[in-house]
Amino acid sequence: MTDSNDKELEKIRLLLQLEDKKVQLEDKKVQLEDKKVQLEDKKVQQLQLQLQIEEKKLERARLHPPSSSASLSATSYADYYRFSILPYLTTCDFQYPIVKDIDKLYGDKKFKRRLIGFLRNVTESKPELEVQYDFQTLLIRNELCNTPDSLFSFFDTHSIYYLNRKAVDISFFFNGTNLNRSSFDDAYLELVVLVCEFKAPDVNIGVEGDLGQMFKYLNVILSEQYRTHVYGLVCNGDSIVYTKAEKYFREPKYYKTNKISLRRPDKSVDDEAVKQLICLLKGYDDVEKNMSFYGTSFYYNRQSLLPRHLIERRLGRGLTSRTFLLSDNNDTRCKSVLKLRYGQDFKSVFQNEVNLVLRLHSSSSSKFFESCLLKIIEYDKIDYRFICFDKQLIEIKEQLTYKQILSLFQIVIELNKQRIVHRDIRPNNILLCIQTKDLYLVDFGFACEMGSYVSFAGTVCYAPAHMLLNLRHRFGHYGSLFQYNDENYDLESFVKVLVFYDNVENREKLQKLDTISRQDDKIEAYISFWDKIRSNEKFQKLFDLVQLAAHHLTMYEQNIANELNTLFNNGQSASSSNVQTAGKILKN
């Protein structure tokens, strides 16, 4: 029995070993399959990269055709450079600025080794996409930008086509500018400061095609931003060229440096040159003080915007500024609005708006103004480059309700009590709060105290009749003569806004008048339109009351409120809630 048991046990042991070997074999098969899959994935990735490289080469070949005049198209970047840039171009040598404590750039020895290693790996056979990717990785890995002491934030924009459907490799923005990548076009174009293009090492970055491409990008930015300077950098790993475009009266001015080598004669990396390059991209103050090529101020119009906010998208553009929707980084549901002025010319306009809005919110009617004027939550206290308001508003696309008409009337009355004339009451400046649906009056840039004389710029369609008549005789400097600020200025504008919202026909007519190109013809068209409206039976009495209230508004408040009730509330009895609301307005 013992022998048979032993044999049985041996048999079982052998069977178990066989099973183990089978399992091991299966594991090896699985491992082999995994390796095959990994190899296939690598092949796919390599093919995809190669495809991208080939597509990039084809794109470059299309944009930069051979240099023979016969093969160049009229719209090529090379032709653009020769005919549009070269006549206004200044070329200069470049001397690196002396920057104190420049070794602090590196932080530790690892970064220095990585930077030198990056440039050593940039060989003539290395594809352009790999050079771009490696440089971006270097910036991100070592937090070169996007840090509190940096002037810049940067974004990889090689696949973001915000420059007339063209993409630039890297875009730099003033630090604290956080952009939502899902809605980039308008915001990127409005706020970019410096654009960088990386070429393959075998590309001669000093040729007309590549420089034409960069200057084309700079001109697109310059035309959209209303800035006076924008900057560009072209690099191929061996050398760099700095560029600048500047507005100068009717014709722009362009600047470029000769090629600046990043390597010594023996092809080794020039450590000091690389340090200075990084210093420029990081934007140290010492660089600004020593950069003769860019002028006394290296980066024009530095803007430290709101780092705790994300810029979602552009909301609109006006005469003096553009506005952006913001969301809080900690709570994207919390929305606010950034108003950014175009240039130094409008500093006084922004300063005026800040002062008046803050004054109204601290006045005896502050509780009332909380529900109809935006609150300023932050602003640039030195240069008044931006104002941040507390909530997002929307346009009124339908007819005004009677309640909204009374709200706007009350705003005009309260401003009058504070001796403030808004001077720009028009449909674009009357908006609704998304949450509460309350009516808000915005844009106090050209508002002023009664009795003061302050210039005004903008549309005059809704201005009082006497202003339009004055313009008929003094036309010439459209927008600089408007110094009227009497009591019925806003009141007449208010009535004209009611005409706009009264019916679709009026809206379409007024919108059509705004498209007239000749300003004197436009003024005549405004006068003719409003003369017809004044003789219209529906609005005649309301316009007459406004004229009577020119210097005695308190005497005619109730009469105007009654006429509003008749026109827009079907003349309901005084016991109705809406008319009671009108009564409350007048008591205030």
TrEMBL record:
Residues 15-64 form a coiled coil. One of its GO terms (molecular function) is protein kinase activity. Residues 309-588 form the Protein kinase domain. ATP binds at K339. InterPro entries: Kinase-like_dom_sf (IPR011009), Prot_kinase_dom (IPR000719), Protein_kinase_ATP_BS (IPR017441), Tyr_kinase_AS (IPR008266). The keyword Nucleotide-binding applies. Gene3D superfamilies: Transferase(Phosphotransferase) domain 1. It holds the Pfam family Pkinase. Keywords: ATP-binding, Coiled coil, Nucleotide-binding. PROSITE patterns: PROTEIN_KINASE_ATP, PROTEIN_KINASE_DOM, PROTEIN_KINASE_TYR. This is Protein kinase domain-containing protein.
